[in-house]
Write a structure and sequence with these properties.
With about 70 residues, the chain is mainly alpha-helical. The protein has one domain. The protein is built from two helices and no strands.
Length: about 70
């Protein structure tokens, strides 16, 4: 049985997801008030900061054993 590799499939999937998300965001932006938009952006920022803190701290953060 041979395996067929489709080169670049991930690129097309990622591009489609970004374009699709942009279109959905453009359509629904009018339905959200400014307070909710601000809350969503702050939540995304906090998640991003937490993610990068965990990445920088490493898996042994707080471990006093050497």
């Amino acid at each position: 049985m041979s395996v067929i590799y489709i080169v670049g499939t991930g690129t097309f999937v990622n591009t489609g997801a970004i374009v699709g998300g942009g279109i959905i965001g453009y359509i629904f932006q009018r339905l959200l008030n400014e307070k909710l938009k601000t809350a969503i952006m702050q939540a995304i920022g906090r998640c991003r900061n937490f993610y990068w803190f965990c990445r920088c701290a490493g898996p042994n953060f707080g471990d006093s054993r050497n």
